[in-house]
Amino acid sequence: MTDSIVIFRTVSEYRNWRNSLPNNTSIGFVPTMGALHQGHLSLVSQSLKENTFTVISIFVNPSQFAPNEDLNSYPRTFTQDLELLSNLNIEGKSVNAIFAPTVLEMYPSGIDLDINKQQGAFVSVLGVSEQLEGQTRPNFFRGVATVVTKLFNAIQPTVAYFGQKDIQQTIVLKRMVKDLLIPIEIKVLPIIRESNGLALSSRNAYLSDELRENSSLIYKALKEGESAFKNGKSRDEILSIITKILLKNEQFKIDYISLADKETLQEIDDLSNGAILSIAIYVTENERTTRLIDNIIL
Ligand SMILES: Nc1ncnc2c1ncn2[C@@H]1O[C@H](COP(=O)(O)OP(=O)(O)OP(=O)(O)O)[C@@H](O)[C@H]1O
Ligand SMILES: CC(C)(CO)[C@@H](O)C(=O)[O-]
Ligand code: BAL
């Protein structure tokens, strides 16, 4: 029998609990936007293995969505999420707390989706936020860095767990904690995939079974790119192999295929020190377009 999970809606309720814990105890933290899947659970499981206490946040953060994006339709499945977390027991430990605040709790002065109308404090991580995801989603990383800073201030964890699927996010956040002297360790864990190779993602819920199957082509393209890299092919050759594979599916529109430096995320020709091979694709069916991302570290 394990203790049940405590759900906190406010920072002050959470802090009361946090202050009741022994000094110097380790708190593992997994920030999420909910609609939990096995990718999230792998992060939670690692936290349970490595820490005395584990806290998950579930918060769909408005400031990382552009006005034309899916903030309103983003899947919200709290009851199911709670059940998944309640059933998770690793080495006799289970999740202690869920922090699921309201928007007003996280943005006490309010938050406008229109960046030109936003006021107040935000966090920007310059140099690694503008390319790739940031090119298509210009204010995305400002929103992510801002909410993760707020979550870190609220939760005060020892270590925080993120997935490699959002690899640029992990680079931005590592840079953020380094530059802002935030005393929290960031750990990055591997991508969990469906059996066909498709990276698990909450937004896969938007896809039909058929499109989920077809979208496994993204991973196949990454693996072909990896083989080409191992066979000594050049940047242009690798990008051309991947493009040909992806264009086989007429439901796909390529946003980017990138071979970038592992630290700076600048595009590189010289692959002798490896690279991050990443892909973003728009997939469309029944007039609904979903953006999928995936990557492999070479
Ligand atoms: N397949 C996966 N394997 C490992 N970690 C993952 C996977 N998918 C998401 N994560 C990680 O879970 C954390 C929370 O992500 P989030 O709640 O946005 O889920 P998501 O599935 O990435 O959703 P979205 O579809 O919005 O991108 C992030 O650190 C993210 O990288
Ligand atoms: C880190 C995060 C929870 C911030 O809202 C989100 O970007 C995500 O789930 O990857
Ligand atoms: N996992 C990244 C969150 C987002 O796409 O908004």
TrEMBL record:
GO BP annotations, alphabetical order: pantothenate biosynthetic process
EC number: 6.3.2.1
A molecular-function term among this protein's GO annotations: pantoate-beta-alanine ligase activity
Keywords: ATP-binding, Ligase, Nucleotide-binding, Pantothenate biosynthesis
Pathway, per record: Cofactor biosynthesis; (R)-pantothenate biosynthesis; (R)-pantothenate from (R)-pantoate and beta-alanine: step 1/1
Catalytic activity field: (R)-pantoate + beta-alanine + ATP = (R)-pantothenate + AMP + diphosphate + H(+)
Enzyme class: ligase
Similarity remark: Belongs to the pantothenate synthetase family.
Name of the featured protein: Pantoate--beta-alanine ligase
